[in-house]
From TrEMBL:
<keyword id="KW-0472">Membrane</keyword>
<comment type="similarity">
    <text>Belongs to the cytochrome P450 family.</text>
</comment>
<dbReference type="InterPro" id="IPR036396">
    <property type="entry name" value="Cyt_P450_sf"/>
</dbReference>
<dbReference type="InterPro" id="IPR017972">
    <property type="entry name" value="Cyt_P450_CS"/>
</dbReference>
<dbReference type="InterPro" id="IPR002401">
    <property type="entry name" value="Cyt_P450_E_grp-I"/>
</dbReference>
<keyword id="KW-0408">Iron</keyword>
<keyword id="KW-0560">Oxidoreductase</keyword>
<dbReference type="Pfam" id="PF00067">
    <property type="entry name" value="p450"/>
</dbReference>
<dbReference type="GO" id="GO:0016709">
    <property type="term" value="F:oxidoreductase activity, acting on paired donors, with incorporation or reduction of molecular oxygen, NAD(P)H as one donor, and incorporation of one atom of oxygen"/>
</dbReference>
<dbReference type="GO" id="GO:0033075">
    <property type="term" value="P:isoquinoline alkaloid biosynthetic process"/>
</dbReference>
<keyword id="KW-0479">Metal-binding</keyword>
<feature type="binding site" description="axial binding residue">
    <location>
        <position position="396"/>
    </location>
    <ligand>
        <name>heme</name>
    </ligand>
</feature>
<protein>
    <submittedName>
        <fullName>Cytochrome P450</fullName>
    </submittedName>
</protein>
<keyword id="KW-0349">Heme</keyword>
<dbReference type="GO" id="GO:0005506">
    <property type="term" value="F:iron ion binding"/>
</dbReference>
<keyword id="KW-1133">Transmembrane helix</keyword>
<dbReference type="InterPro" id="IPR001128">
    <property type="entry name" value="Cyt_P450"/>
</dbReference>
Length: 451
């Protein structure tokens, strides 16, 4: 990503890179990103060819993220939006968040007592993953099993990041061992999740009378319930392979991005106690020192919203959005973009651009209350100043759900504890890439009970 930053200075906002046998068209300016993804949305809404490893895990591009722009993608996305993120369903699932967050707070207290500090990332990942398992399968399962699922899904994400054969297919035979490892991991993923698929199916088919204690959500309230009867164009009825893949997509996408955002936000609250105090005062003013924090409460907390937006701006989950491909040859910025070429949108520069943001390297939530962030549209529809969820047709469909989890967890953690640095061990802001852009040395902090 740092190479792209340097090349941008030399070659301008749009340039071509030849990576082996693959042509990558790199787009780095806000204007061209908006033109491609919003104004010419349908043309840039497809995906390039996949590697054999990624095809294995996506069951031949049967996920919302990987599907070609067309009937399959429309069916999967429409079903997801209707079934999972409509306001009624989000309200219906509020008990899941309450249960998971109560466990989260107990776990933080226990870890703090045992070790004197807490690790942010691992705790946030576990909590968000447990919420998403329950939303997907309607199941309340043991922490041990959640950790097992979380570990397998993390391995899947790392296994499917771009590798040498993606760019030089001629070398694919030399990577047979990697494909074997991928097949073994896929088998583990299926072993982990198929039992949940079968238990939920039995629960639904019995009309909720099979008495399985793990199945806690009413019929119709779990994402997988909507997939059992779905018959997308060109696919027919979905099998266990597709069901596991589609639920894994939700859990993967939601866990890492939300947990990463929480870790970066808490880093800045630890480093800047003034910001943390201001947030705590807003929470107390809104719900009291020990009041329950609801979905409706966090929507009204403007400073909390500003902190989360500034975290998205300062630490976007990725420096690129997922690869796009043009559905037909088209023109962009005076250049011809061939059909099916990899089009890569480098979005990190947009949030670092000093002509767009004042003092872009500073973490300053106030900019979203009065300043250069007030009218920013995080969806990119009106113009691109930041795009943590992508933009246009392929924008992340779960952004409202992910943002809600971040707001709730951050508010609850700051209401209960004051977060401070571990003595003689200040936080390290060095970044590294592990599907999302994470802290190289995971954040540990001391938590001091507020009351």
């Amino acid at each position: 990503m740092y190479i792209v930053r340097d090349l941008r200075t030399k070659y301008g906002p749009i340039f071509t890179m030849q990576m082996g046998q693959r042509t990558l068209i790199i787009i780095t300016s806000a204007e061209l990103i908006h033109e491609a993804l919003v104004q010419k949305g349908p043309i840039f809404a497809s995906r390039p060819a996949e590697s054999p490893t990624r095809l294995l895990f996506s069951v031949g591009k049967c996920t919302i993220n990987s599907a070609q722009y067309g009937p399959l993608w429309r069916t999967l996305r429409r079903n997801f939006v209707t079934e999972l993120i409509n306001p009624a369903r989000i309200r219906q699932c509020s008990w899941i968040r309450k249960w998971a967050m109560e466990n989260h707070m107990k776990r933080l207290k226990k870890e703090s007592l045992e070790t004197g500090s807490v690790e942010v990332m691992s705790n946030c990942r576990l909590t968000i993953c447990s919420i998403l398992v329950c939303i997907c399968f309607g199941a309340k399962i043991s922490e041990t099993l959640i950790k097992e699922i979380e570990a397998v899904l993390k391995d899947v994400m790392l296994m499917t990041t771009p590798k040498l054969p993606d760019f030089l297919p001629i070398f694919t035979p030399l990577f047979r061992k990697q494909l074997q490892r991928a097949k073994e991991l896929r088998r583990k993923q299926m072993e982990c999740l198929v039992p949940l698929v079968r238990k939920r199916r039995a629960f639904v088919e019995s009309g909720g009378k099979d008495g399985d204690p793990e199945m806690v959500s009413q019929i119709g309230a779990a994402y997988i319930d909507s997939l059992f009867g779905l018959e997308p164009a060109g696919r027919g009825r979905l099998g266990e392979e597709e069901l596991v893949t589609l639920c894994s997509e939700v859990m993967n996408a939601g866990t890492d991005t939300s947990a990463t955002t929480l870790e970066w936000a808490l880093l800045h609250l630890v480093m800047n106690q003034e910001i943390q105090t201001k947030l705590y005062e807003e929470i107390v003013e809104s719900v009291g020192k020990e009041g329950m924090i609801s979905e409706e409460d966090v929507e009204k907390m403007s400073y909390l919203g500003a902190i989360v937006k500034e975290t998205f701006r300062r630490h976007p989950p990725s420096h690129f959005v997922l690869s796009h491909a043009a559905t037909k040859e088209t023109e962009l910025g005076g250049y011809t973009v061939p059909a099916d070429a990899n089009v890569e949108f480098y979005t990190a520069w947009v949030t670092e651009d000093p002509s767009v943001w004042k003092d872009p390297s500073e973490f300053r939530p106030e900019r979203f209350l009065k300043g250069d962030g007030v009218d920013v549209d995080v969806t990119g529809s009106r113009g691109v100043k930041m795009m943590p969820f992508g933009a246009g047709r392929r924008i992340c469909p779960a952004m409202t759900l992910g943002t809600l989890h971040v707001h709730l967890l951050l508010a609850k953690m700051v209401q209960a504890f004051k977060w401070v640095a571990v003595p003689d061990s200040p936080p390290d802001q060095t970044e590294t890439f592990a599907f999302t852009v994470v802290m190289k040395n995971p954040l540990r902090a001391v938590i001091l009970p507020r009351s």
